[in-house]
């Protein structure tokens, strides 16, 4: 899949138009204007909201400010989920732009992880990449990389540099020509309907008979309830891993 | 390789092919015969049919196989009647061959076999060595035999002329019977096995093949004179063998192995280009004494064998010095036969399941491969039961024709068919289930092949339900009880697919008659199996390489049949319906989420961005060398959103830190300069182009270089706002490394004044590798690779490595070229020629100039992108000719060489060639199957409306055939088929002008004009011979709107004077310039060339793009040259650029032009030449 750049680019450059509004109970010195921003789907909330933070802090007193957090229709938004996932999971059916409420007080300790700095995001991101590579290549590829490659991957994401990111990520997405795919497909299935945070299982890209699995096969296997009863899986695409699996 | 295919014979004797791009077995087009053996080569296949006769199947091609028959008419002068037929008694025949020794009356020349037809009647050849003769084609001499001249002199006592007649081979895409060798005196000895190979031994004559056969009595036979122009060969020669042969295998090169009845193998020694039959036999013992060898198959440097216990063996240590090898290694698996095909790839037929296995992982470094993998492709149309069982019948009994008598079940078949077709319909739940439901015991062998059959391409909806009863399934019925006859009629597709055949009625009827015999031939009903059972396989026409994506191993399901036919040479993922769907959904999502919100601020800003790195720089001062530098690229986004970039190169000289910088918006081209050691690239600006001294930078790794190049290219394109696919008017050029560059012409490039200097043209690289490129003004672009493969531009953007641009329409492309080195020797009185030269001499192994040492071991492929694909071999096709061992002689180095030794020759050399291959990607798709040497597309007249007509495209094949492509249009730039244009000799170059004037250059160096070419008559009617400039041999021609330019072998550029509408051939050649390597004349009659040895302020540049200045209607030859990009450029095409400066004056000028130069009254230059132009120009 690494050579299907049209898809890669569309995934990478996916943006969600968002309207940030300050929570009504926050104390401000003057009225806070909403702030509009195009958020990259593949990035993390706390990584790309410096401007939001700056915007609202201008109208607040220093002592009223503690750690920033976001909420949508009463649900605190987990910063360690990619933005696109949060949107698709919670708000995909609502009208655009996506209305996110910004809080600076009452951090919901039991719902959210703290995000003290960008290092925390980087650590989380890198651990996801490592976990994915453990499934794909028994960690061989990620372990053979140098520290600066890891850094480039992260900087690519942070600075929204597609080329920079994919120059390294390409290696993570390759598999030997004689094999039909990764060892296991790294995936997580998130659902709003269940209590479980996500489903994750070992899943091989190729069936025992050599046939490539499709996304439909995967869903049928791990999440049968999500598959439409019409049974049109035959027309489903062969299972592909998109760039998101790097971060998830 | 769209035409590369695996050939196989099933148990019923039916021949099938499986394309490397396909996933279904297709029945051989001529399926009336059943075969025991097939042995394939490129474009043809030999086989032994069940009647034990040998047949050859020559694949159809747009170029006919033509052979010229010649006869000479001789006359002698006598005082009474002048020249007359009465010859002296001592003279030759009045009608003879070229030597005069053979009597050869015209009506005595017969066609060699029923597969040939005459093309026309005999006619006199009026061309003599590139010069036209006087009427009648007579050439004169003092006496026979002598040197003939064109001119009659006072002492010309004899004369002769040549009569020519062409015959054409007609039996293509059909099995042509090779006349039997049996002479009536002896008992018949039918053939038992056959093998084709030897195509790499030599290319003289073109397409020469070695065809070897073994007869039932154990004799080995060789077919003489088999080549492309003589596909049937001439006769069988008996070869002596020390034992009784049972089977034979001939490799592409010099390997030939035979299995003996006693279980040993015979190895032929001494096969070479002078003696393709070899000279002697050696014996190789089988791996174990108890189980002798049953079957061998050989490749270029491998031998595989099967012993009588069905074990598979690989022979170690095979090379051209040791065709016997050293020892046997046992491989996994039990096979009935193995076959080695192209690139030493291996196929086998499993003992148990009779499936064809492909040996995976065979590479040059690991010839024994890794594992066997079963090919599960199913047959495209299970050619039905009836057809297959008929073959079974005749496999048991040689006289198949006699059984095919009774024609009863023909009529019921149709009715039964329809009822059968309806019955399974409702039961069929869908493709998903059909794979699981059959549940046959052998399912594991061909996983999912049931599913595959359910979606065979070409099966239309109507035929859909029928396939629920795929061919072989019902066989158990008839095998057990003969009463149940209806199964013979289940061949539902047959009447529909091939009405002609079913009308003849024999598939059904033979099916019927075979029933009685069916149980005799087989112990078990093979029909119960759900995959085809195979008897023989041949990979001699099957090009599988490391990067080839094969679709043979999985049975595709779920894709619609139309989708599958689409994905011919494209990776399946790129075209699959689901991929399109995903992409479309993504695009829709982006549109939905972004369309109304584009004014929102981006969360991540990109204002300044810097990439830094360590590179090496070829320093500007002497002594020039690579110095380490730090490099930084800074990008700024201006307020208007435009990007601008500066490249800084920091270096240290005399411990002082300095830097140079380059504004990327001034860069005109970035050229990768890969060689064996350095990953470097050159960066040109107009100033650097004039100096002939680019900034050269080298990276530590190829990846690093590609990253920099991609980034710099992107920055250059961004700053010039160039992106996407090139415009239809783009100018294309190619470097000597095969890299492709394209430039958008500015309107004032061809302006009458204030012309844009051509060193300011911006070139960007397109992906791919070509030797020749040709574009017209409608976006049709063709290219030719170094290996003569023809490619058509797909419309992809300039995907240069980096991820930045789209990969739509980018495909894998490969190219092959040769690396040459020379072996030099000097004669001395003691040992004769030896490698010990004089101290002043050149290296024993050198390059062509002799100045650089080049040994076989140290010579590397041109760059790391290339890898060797052959071994070193002597090149016999060097100019000047060679002796039998490839040596060329001369009096001393360096000198002109000739192919024979004389008393005065003290040195000799020979050329060694080694093929290397490059695999890359670019916006190109192969146009098979013909290999091309030259191509020309009609340039578009400015503004002319040609829609509705197909675009004229002419080409020269690598064999020198002149071809005209039909069906080329903007929407279908590849066209549909070739139309062959007959010539009396091979051609080298062709060009078609804007008014359908076709000029061509023949191999003898003379030019030809093709008369009456028009959209209605795309191939024209006849050739007009045009002598070359005095004492020069032309090599290339280019025709613009009205100008005709030609180039000779000494680099002189000639303008054709006196071309008028009434006399389009013109009157004479006028010299324009020397020092020219290639010329391209565009639709504005603009002249661009690649020049050699252009002087710059820093160095000399070979291969420079030059633009002829001062070309005016009144002065079509122009005045001087403007020098553009250069240093290693090889080819340019400006034939797409009809962009005139948009000024009032240019219109007048054009009108003036058309008036003066006799062009039909075009309303204006911009509006162009109307349709009637061609006819007027030709008159």
TrEMBL record, chain A:
Residues of the Autophagy protein ATG5 alpha-helical bundle region domain: 119-174
Cell compartment(s), UniProt: Preautophagosomal structure membrane
Region annotation (Disordered) ranges: 226-248
Domain Autophagy protein ATG5 UblA: 11-104
Membrane topology of the entry: Peripheral membrane protein
Stored Pfam families: ATG5_HBR (PF20637), ATG5_UblA (PF20638), ATG5_UblB (PF04106)
InterPro entries: Atg5 (IPR007239), ATG5_HBR (IPR048940), Atg5_HR (IPR042526), ATG5_UblA (IPR048939), Atg5_UblA_dom_sf (IPR042527), ATG5_UblB (IPR048318)
Residue ranges annotated for the Autophagy protein ATG5 UblB domain, each copy included: 184-228
Compositional bias segments (type: Basic and acidic residues): 230-248
Main location: membrane
Protein origin, superkingdom: Eukaryota
Keywords: Autophagy, Isopeptide bond, Membrane, Ubl conjugation
Gene3D superfamilies: 3.10.20.620, Autophagy protein Apg5, helix rich domain, Phosphatidylinositol 3-kinase Catalytic Subunit, Chain A, domain 1
Listed transmembrane segments: none
Role description: Involved in autophagic vesicle formation.
Quaternary context: Forms a conjugate with ATG12. Part of the minor complex composed of 4 sets of ATG12-ATG5 and ATG16L1 (400 kDa); this complex interacts with ATG3 leading to disruption of ATG7 interaction and promotion of ATG8-like proteins lipidation. Forms an 800-kDa complex composed of ATG12-ATG5 and ATG16L2. The ATG12-ATG5 conjugate interacts with RAB33A; this interaction is bridged by ATG16L1 and promotes ATG12-ATG5-ATG16L1 complex recruitment to phagophores. Interacts with TECPR1; the interaction is direct and does not take place when ATG16L1 is associated with the ATG5-ATG12 conjugate.
Family: Belongs to the ATG5 family.
Protein name: Autophagy protein 5
Organism name: Felis catus
Gene name, Swiss-Prot/TrEMBL: ATG5
UniProtKB/TrEMBL annotation, chain B:
Keyword annotations of the record: Repeat
Domain Peroxin/Ferlin: 64-125, 137-170, 814-875, 886-919
InterPro entries attached to this UniProt entry: Beta-propeller_rpt_TECPR, Peroxin/Ferlin, PH-like_dom_sf, TECPR1-like_DysF, Tectonin_beta-prop
Subcellular location: Cytoplasmic vesicle, Autophagosome membrane
Gene3D superfamilies: Pleckstrin-homology domain (PH domain)/Phosphotyrosine-binding domain (PTB) (2.30.29.30)
Region (Disordered): 405-483, 1154-1179
Alphabetized SUPFAM superfamilies for the sequence: PH domain-like (SSF50729)
UniProt similarity note: Belongs to the TECPR1 family.
Protein name per the record: Tectonin beta-propeller repeat-containing protein 1
Organism listed in the record: Felis catus (Cat)
């Amino acid at each position: 899949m690494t050579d299907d750049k049209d898809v890669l680019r569309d995934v990478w450059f996916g943006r969600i138009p968002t309207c940030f509004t300050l929570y009504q109970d926050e104390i401000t010195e003057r009225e806070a204007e909403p702030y509009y921003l195009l958020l990259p789907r593949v990035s993390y909330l706390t990584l790309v909201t410096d401007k939001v933070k700056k915007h609202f802090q201008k109208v607040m007193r220093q002592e009223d400010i503690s750690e920033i957090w976001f909420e949508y229709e009463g649900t605190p938004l987990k910063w360690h989920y990619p933005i696109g996932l949060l949107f698709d999971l919670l708000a995909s059916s609502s009208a655009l732009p996506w209305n996110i409420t910004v809080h600076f007080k009452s951090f919901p300790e039991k719902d959210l992880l703290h995000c003290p700095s960008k290092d925390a995001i980087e650590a989380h991101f890198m651990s996801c990449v490592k976990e994915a590579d453990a499934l794909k290549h028994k960690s061989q590829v990620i372990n053979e990389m140098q520290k600066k490659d890891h850094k480039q991957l992260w900087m690519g994401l942070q600075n929204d540099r597609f080329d920079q990111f994919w120059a390294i990520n390409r290696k993570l997405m390759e598999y030997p020509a004689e094999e039909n795919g990764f060892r296991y497909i790294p995936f997580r299935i998130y659902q709003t309907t269940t209590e479980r945070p996500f489903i994750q299982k070992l899943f091989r890209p190729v069936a025992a008979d050599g046939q490539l699995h499709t996304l439909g096969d995967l869903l049928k296997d791990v999440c049968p309830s999500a598959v439409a009863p019409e049974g049109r899986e035959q027309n489903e695409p062969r299972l592909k891993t998109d760039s998101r699996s790097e971060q998830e | 390789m769209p035409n590369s295919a695996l050939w196989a014979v099933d148990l019923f004797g039916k021949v099938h092919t499986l394309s490397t791009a396909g996933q279904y077995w297709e029945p051989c087009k001529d399926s009336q015969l059943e075969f025991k053996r097939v042995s394939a080569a490129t474009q043809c296949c030999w086989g032994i049919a069940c009647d034990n006769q040998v047949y050859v199947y020559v694949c159809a091609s747009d170029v006919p196989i033509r052979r010229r028959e010649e006869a000479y008419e001789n006359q002698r002068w006598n005082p009474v009647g002048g020249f007359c037929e009465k010859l002296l008694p001592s003279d030759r025949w009045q009608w003879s061959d070229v030597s005069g020794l053979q009597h050869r009356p015209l009506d005595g020349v017969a066609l060699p076999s029923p597969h040939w037809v005459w093309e026309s009647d005999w006619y006199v050849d009026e061309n003599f060595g590139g010069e036209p003769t006087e009427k009648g084609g007579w050439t004169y001499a003092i006496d026979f035999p002598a040197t003939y001249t064109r001119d009659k002199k006072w002492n010309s006592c004899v004369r002769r002329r040549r009569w020519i007649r062409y015959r054409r081979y007609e039996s293509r895409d059909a099995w042509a019977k090779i006349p039997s060798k049996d002479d009536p005196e002896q008992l018949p000895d039918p053939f038992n096995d056959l093998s084709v190979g030897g195509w790499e031994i030599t290319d003289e004559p073109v397409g020469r093949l070695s065809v070897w056969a073994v007869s039932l009595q154990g004799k080995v036979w060789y077919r003489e004179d088999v080549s492309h122009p003589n596909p049937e060969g001439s006769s069988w020669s008996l070869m002596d063998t020390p034992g009784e042969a049972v089977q034979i295998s001939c490799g592409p090169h010099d390997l030939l192995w035979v299995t003996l009845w006693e279980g040993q193998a015979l190895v032929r020694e001494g096969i070479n280009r002078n003696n393709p039959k070899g000279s002697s036999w050696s014996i190789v013992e089988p791996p174990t004494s108890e189980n002798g060898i049953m079957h061998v198959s050989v490749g270029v440097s491998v031998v595989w064998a099967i012993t009588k216990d069905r074990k598979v063996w690989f022979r170690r240590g095979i090379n051209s010095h040791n065709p016997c090898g050293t020892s046997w290694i046992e491989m996994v698996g039990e096979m009935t036969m193995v076959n080695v095909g192209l690139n030493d790839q291996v196929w086998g037929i499993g003992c148990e399941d009779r499936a064809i296995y492909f040996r995976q992982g065979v590479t040059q470094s690991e010839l024994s491969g890794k594992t066997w993998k079963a090919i599960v492709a199913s047959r495209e149309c299970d050619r039905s039961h009836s057809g297959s069982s008929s073959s079974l019948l005749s496999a048991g009994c040689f006289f198949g024709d006699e059984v095919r008598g009774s024609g009863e079940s023909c009529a019921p078949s149709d009715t039964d068919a329809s009822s059968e077709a309806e019955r399974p319909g409702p039961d069929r739940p869908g493709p998903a289930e059909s794979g699981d439901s059959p549940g046959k015991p052998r399912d594991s062998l061909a996983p999912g092949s049931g599913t595959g059959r359910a979606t065979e391409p070409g099966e239309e909806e109507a035929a859909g339900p029928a396939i629920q009863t795929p061919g072989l399934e019902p066989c158990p019925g008839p095998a057990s009880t003969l009463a149940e006859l209806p199964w013979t009629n289940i061949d539902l597709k047959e009447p529909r697919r091939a009405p002609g055949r079913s009308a003849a009625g024999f598939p059904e009827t033979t099916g019927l008659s075979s029933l009685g015999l069916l149980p005799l031939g087989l112990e078990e009903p093979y029909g119960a199996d759900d995959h085809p059972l195979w008897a023989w396989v041949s990979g001699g026409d099957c090009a599988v390489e490391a990067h080839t994506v094969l679709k043979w191993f999985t049975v595709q399901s779920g894709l619609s049949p139309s989708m599958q036919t689409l994905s011919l040479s494209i990776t399946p993922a790129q075209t699959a319906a689901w991929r399109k769907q995903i992409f479309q959904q993504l695009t829709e999502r982006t549109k939905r989420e972004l369309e109304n919100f584009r004014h929102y601020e981006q969360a991540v800003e990109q204002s300044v961005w810097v990439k830094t790195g360590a590179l090496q720089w070829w320093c500007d001062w002497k002594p020039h060398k690579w110095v380490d530098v730090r490099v930084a690229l800074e990008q700024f986004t201006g307020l208007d959103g435009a990007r601008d970039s500066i490249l800084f190169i920091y270096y240290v000289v005399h411990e002082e830190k300095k830097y140079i910088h380059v504004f990327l918006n001034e860069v005109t081209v970035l050229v990768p300069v890969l060689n064996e050691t350095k990953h470097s690239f050159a960066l040109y600006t107009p100033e650097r182009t004039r100096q002939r001294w680019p900034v050269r930078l080298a990276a530590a790794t190829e990846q690093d270089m590609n990253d920099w190049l991609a980034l710099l290219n992107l920055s250059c394109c961004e700053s010039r706002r160039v992106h996407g696919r090139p415009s239809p008017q783009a100018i294309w050029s190619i470097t000597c490394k095969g890299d492709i560059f394209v430039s958008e012409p500015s309107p004032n490039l061809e302006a009458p004044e204030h012309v844009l200097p051509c060193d300011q043209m911006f070139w960007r690289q397109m992906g791919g590798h070509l030797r020749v490129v040709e574009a017209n003004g409608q976006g049709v672009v063709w290219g030719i690779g170094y290996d003569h493969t023809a490619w058509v531009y797909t419309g992809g953007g300039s995907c240069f490595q980096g991820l930045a641009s789209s990969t739509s329409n980018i495909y894998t492309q490969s190219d092959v070229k040769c690396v040459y080195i020379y072996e030099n020797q000097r004669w001395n009185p003691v040992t004769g020629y030896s490698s010990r030269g004089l101290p002043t001499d050149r290296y024993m192994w050198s390059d062509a100039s002799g100045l650089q040492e080049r040994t076989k071991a140290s010579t590397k492929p041109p760059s790391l992108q290339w890898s060797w694909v052959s071994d070193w071999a002597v090149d016999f096709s060097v100019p000047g000719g060679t002796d039998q061992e490839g040596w060329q002689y001369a009096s001393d180095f360096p000198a002109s060489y000739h192919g024979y030794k004389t008393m005065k020759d003290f040195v000799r050399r020979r050329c060694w060639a080694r093929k290397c291959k490059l695999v890359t990607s670019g916006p190109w798709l192969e146009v098979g199957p013909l290999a091309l040497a030259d191509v020309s597309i009609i340039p578009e007249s400015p503004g002319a409306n040609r829609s509705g007509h197909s675009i004229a495209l002419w080409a020269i094949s690598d064999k020198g055939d002149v071809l005209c492509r039909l069906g080329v249009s903007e929407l279908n730039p590849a066209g549909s088929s070739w139309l062959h244009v007959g010539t009396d000799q091979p051609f080298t170059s062709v060009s078609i002008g804007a008014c359908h004037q076709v000029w061509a250059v023949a191999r003898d160096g003379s030019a030809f004009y093709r008369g009456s070419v028009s959209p209605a008559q795309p191939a024209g009617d006849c050739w007009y011979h045009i002598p070359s400039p005095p004492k020069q041999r032309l090599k290339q021609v280019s025709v613009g709107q009205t100008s005709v330019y030609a180039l000779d072998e000494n680099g002189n550029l000639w303008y054709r004077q006196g071309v008028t509408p009434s006399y389009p051939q013109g009157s004479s050649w006028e010299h324009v310039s020397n020092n020219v390597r290639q010329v391209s004349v565009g639709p504005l009659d603009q002249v661009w060339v690649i020049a050699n040895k252009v002087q710059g302020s820093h160095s000399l540049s070979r291969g420079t793009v030059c633009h002829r200045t001062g070309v005016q209607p009144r002065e079509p030859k122009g005045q001087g040259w403007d020098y553009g990009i250069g240093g290693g450029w090889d080819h340019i095409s400006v034939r797409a650029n009809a962009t005139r400066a948009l000024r009032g004056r240019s219109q007048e000028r054009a009108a003036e032009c058309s008036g003066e130069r006799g062009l039909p009254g075009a309303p204006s230059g911009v509006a162009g030449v109307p349709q009637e132009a061609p006819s007027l120009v030709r008159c």
